[in-house]
Design brief:
Four copies of one chain form a homotetramer.
Chain A (H helix, E strand, L loop, with lengths): L16 H15 L23 E18 L4 E9 L5 H14 L3 E12 L2 E3 L3 H13 L1 H9 L6 E10 L2 E9 L6 H18 L5 E3 L12 H6 L2 E10 L1 H8 L3 H18 L8 H12 L6 H4 L3 E6 L5 E10 L11 H9 L8 H30 L10
Parallel strand pairs in A: 1-3
Antiparallel strand pairs in A: 1-2, 3-6, 3-8, 4-6, 4-7, 5-6, 8-10, 9-10
Helix pairs in contact in A: 2-12, 4-5, 9-12
Chain lengths: 391, 391, 391, 391
């Protein structure tokens, strides 16, 4: 059974339409599947090294346009049209509806409150005492370790190194800023250089593994939600009662009552996000703009926080503690992806904060839209006034 | 500032290239961004209702081919070539390398061990006693509730209803099987019908909200990892020591030693997955095949489990407790997506188990490849034999 | 250095004051410590087999009396005086204050909503497929397994067996009711009998370990909070605004506003309890009444849930999902412990539900007292009305 | 029904045996319960202010003696006899057995790797931007905040202030060292002073609540396990294969194999501790020595980490990340409690590190004893060699 051929490659020039066609032919020969649509693309294969291997075509993911999304950010200011790549019906319509509500409410305020990307090696010792001494040594040699790390990058800056002790192990969570890049590779390289320096210079020359699994790359975790990974961004808005009533057919009191059910439920369930569905909007934005889509794992975490205000309006916020985004590197430079970033005005240096704010504002639009819909839908469907019971 | 126009739509026929072009022109007028590549696609816009709103073009996501991946599953049998849509360099190469290792080891054994998609409404009462009585009533009326739910669908079947009590609230986690569809909409509709029946027939006519946030849709959660959401799938392999040495330059003893660091780290970090990077392979497969990419949030959860065998070989497994996949519905029928499913032989009825097994096997390939690379890389980089220290 | 003697024991009659004195003398000889107070006790050593080994005296833990605590339970009805054994100043006073408030509010409603104690063995197979088949076999042989388990106990009843699949492992979470006993030993013995029956009768004669660490005995866990361990009990009360103002100098609006900070904080922190300090009241009650104090680990978990009612009053509930208590067995029969149970009317058969309700009501008293104090204290200390800011 | 009397108190001199007798009589009159044993104590009531209110007697908790426990710590050196107050049979015997094994293995190495007690207020702002600016202001005013906090205590020292951002909220986790005291009250007072200083001096005079629920006092939490609360202590030992075989009838290979089941189980279950039963030993030590027993909630968290060494021996460690202990303050000065501390040589200044190490070493003794017993018990009971299956 184990006799099938490896995927064809060209040593000389693998990133060509000719080789892509060879691979599509290979697929047809091996599996019978035709790849006519997959082979239909405008992206130049020659631009793809560093983005894909064994290229044979593209997934065409439909893009819908939502907006305008009114943002009062520090980096994003004004109205934005948001390209969302998805195959899930109603997603764009729902976010669009939320954006309309938010615009009527005066817009979304967005704030990037923290920024750090990490690689977290583990160093291994004979016992906890040696590991603790090592930790002190690392603190004392902070300057040299920083120098070793930063020598590998013109952009990355080592912010600090958190230390975690388990038995004879010492985990170092090395936090970097990474400019407009998401920075996983940048910080991996920098951390490896730091580790190599440490290993050479520490008297024990301790063993290490570059990742001790507390980074936690491509995985949701409590540590990421708590301490941050990528950008920590807040989107918030005050929704006037009359706007909610008119556009969503719900009241702030109803929203706040139901919010308590959701908070209890999310707490009980051990959920990564006690809001509604951040992953939906983020996935659509990530695909459209060339983000690393696997980072939905980390980025979808969130803490929703609301209050019923004294004047009867509704304060609503979503905090994304581990939003991993880029406007440089990865897939951001590819053909359609760069176009979609341009739609958002997020091409060129210094735009990643703007993009992060647009992401968070988009998420908030989805929260208000879906939460209201669930509430109103039930209410209507039930043909009765919601909330008869007191608790 | 709040003066920009809504996105143009056509009431009569919105799903046309003409309207897509209108929207691209609108974007150019509003933002200055050209959408030449985004407007380049072969998918017929007329096929897109139910998948996208405000369509204006596509994201072209490069697809690379990995494989062959040798699978000994119950649904997937033999060698597969896996189309992976990603913009992250080395991803395809790394999975490909893992697949080669697994083939040399005799292939991956895959098993779907459970299957359930849910919607979890919350019913609200005056006090805990009423909520408890309601719970008993629900159990007693299981047949009627099932009938009400299943009347809305020819495919979905209500497996059971889990109940969770918090104060005066009763959360019902309604578990369904959903055929080849992922089934979120199907179970939402069925659960709404069940709730409506309950509300009408229970003497208290209790209020409910269709989601009490313990579903937990588009969110990782402890409850999903524990109780399952979508398919629970295991991929496992026994890796001979000599194959690991030859292809990965690592030994089972080294892998198992480092595995303990990762397990401690993942436990400390509160990670959703104590393996390496399931999200990477899944995201690439999901985009290529028209899955709901936001479900990476749930699907990337995993429990890696390994043992060093008495004969010196290495047993490696990954359990994906909440893999949400479909071969019908959602984006699976779109042009390139359907082609990629065809490459895997996953078109037509009864193929979702096969696809789930391919996903899990792909993830395992990524685990062995990345974990070995981290280990060998450190080892080589350090120019010394790894593992001098005992702990 | 390793030359010290083992603790003296008597083969013939170790449970005597004479042997206790021998051991106190031994301690003095070895360490110089006098144990005059420790040797002062009234409990007959002859009654201690099964409760302690190497007995040498007692810890005298001061008991304070709180109450009356007005309870409207199904098992506990009326006013109770609660003996609390603690060394932490203000604890009794604070709970006492909460009880006064609750009495003024009309009392606490308590409900035991679930009851289950478990032991969770893991069975080990060659692969996931065999483990899944085993799971089906277990379901099919439910009657025989139940018979084998229940043959070991006149009280314990097997409620159901939850199954959890990880790779080639199958964890069985065997849920029992255990009468007035906490039941850990009872269910351990019954589960071992069940496992032995399974191992003998299943064609694979699979290996197992009696605990696969998902029980999770003496440990907080998500699975315990979700699925329950011991009693799941709710205590709830409606606090009139005027009572809160008069006795606590806080308003329902303030409490509810601050509640949102706590819910966000507890969610962010990954806390086992999003209320205030259940562990305090429970530890004091547990010590006084001879509970297994180590079960504070599980029992302190909680889900607080509140609503601001339309009439301006405040609904407050605490759900204890894993309250492990007994009125029979363990330390409940010891001298002072039995007296304290008698104070609560919880001696004799069929009293464990009553005791569980008293525990939950006591916890609620502590919640309202401490939460109000934190709020009012800050408010007063700040010499300004709390809550100027909107969020 | 609500007509029962409040508990009698004396304004002039409440801490007397006379008043204790009055309350015991009151209990008898109200409930019929006799408190003969409870009224039997030697502790002088006059010494109890600050430890208990409404004193009426004591719980007599039996103490058993375990040991000798051989410790190679930095603070604890040599052999110790450990007084354990419990009502659970076999507990002392089991820990004693573990101590014997550890002594045969050369003793336990213990290390306090971190030390911090915290109170975590939350400050509330209009939006996230103001909250972020506040956070920067706090960092800039670190010296003044420290001075304000430390002015309230001669012992407590502010180590650092961690900041956590959620929407418009800023949580400050203020970490202190607290000498030989557990320090919750000390840091509460100091943090209140810091908050008052902040509120007075920050231009916004922001509202705050003294606890925003991320402390997390008397509650297990991910943040405590990760960042520490109280002492973070490691106990570790290398267990020779022959000692394990002789004393426990298990082999390192068996232990390590089973260890993988437990790690997977604990990860799946979301357990606070992936070891066996730290809560048991800690609760017994806490009661005996006057610790705040409610802190079992935090203190029972743990990370077990093991390796099978190249020479066939077994390395075993337990890390307690949130061990809250004292040798000064709280109940440590009471009569029997002080005696038990004296048995351990933990009275007088500068002994808290020693006591923390004894706690951790005791826990490790319990881990090796119970884990071996489960393994051997199953093995023996099954009348077959364990571990036939490979995974």
């Amino acid at each position: 059974m184990n006799d099938r051929s490896p995927v064809p490659r060209s040593r000389d020039d693998d990133y060509t339409e000719a080789m892509a066609a060879v691979r599509r032919d290979f697929v047809r020969a091996q599996t019978g599947a035709e790849l006519g649509h997959t082979g239909h693309y405008s992206q130049d294969p020659a631009s793809l090294p560093g983005n894909i291997e064994n290229f044979l075509g593209v997934a065409q993911v439909p893009i819908g346009l939502a907006g305008p999304l009114l943002i009062d950010g520090e980096h994003a200011q004004g109205e934005f049209y948001v390209p969302m790549a998805t195959t899930e019906g109603t997603l764009v319509a729902s976010y669009n509806r939320g954006m309309r509500l938010l615009a009527a409410a005066g817009g979304v305020r967005t704030t990037v409150v923290d920024d750090r990307m990490q690689r977290a090696p583990v160093f291994v010792f004979d016992d906890a005492r040696a590991a603790r001494a090592f930790g002190e040594w690392v603190t004392e040699h902070d300057d040299q370790i920083r120098a070793a790390a930063e020598a590998t990058t013109t952009i990355g800056r080592l912010v600090d190194i958190e230390q975690y002790a388990v038995g004879p192990l010492r985990y170092l969570r090395c936090n970097f800023t990474t400019g407009d890049a998401a920075g996983q590779n940048m910080v991996g390289r920098a951390t490896l250089a730091a580790c190599a320096w440490i290993r050479s210079n520490h008297p024990d020359h301790p063993d290490f593994v570059l990742s001790g699994a507390i980074d936690t790359d491509k995985k949701h975790s409590a540590i990421n939600a708590m301490r941050g990974r990528g950008k920590r961004v807040v989107a918030e808005a005050v929704l006037p009662a009359e706007v909610l009533a008119e556009q969503m057919r719900v009241t702030p009191r109803q929203l706040f009552r139901v919010r308590q059910y959701s908070q209890a439920g999310a707490f009980l369930a051990g959920a990564a996000n006690n809001g509604a569905h951040a992953a939906n909007g983020l996935a659509a934005l990530f695909i459209a703009t060339g983000q690393d889509v696997a980072n939905i794992a980390e980025s979808h975490a969130g803490i929703a926080y609301s209050q019923l205000l004294d004047n009867g309006d509704y304060y609503w916020s979503i905090t994304l503690p581990a939003l991993i985004v880029a406007t440089y590197g990865g897939g951001t430079g590819l053909a359609t992806q760069q176009e979609c970033l341009a739609v958002l005005g997020c091409t060129g240096p210094g735009t990643v904060g703007k993009f992060a704010e647009i992401c968070a504002a988009t998420v908030l639009a989805g929260e208000v839209s879906l939460s209201s819909a669930i509430l109103a839908g039930e209410w209507v469907a039930a043909h009765e006034q919601f909330g008869r019971n007191r608790a």
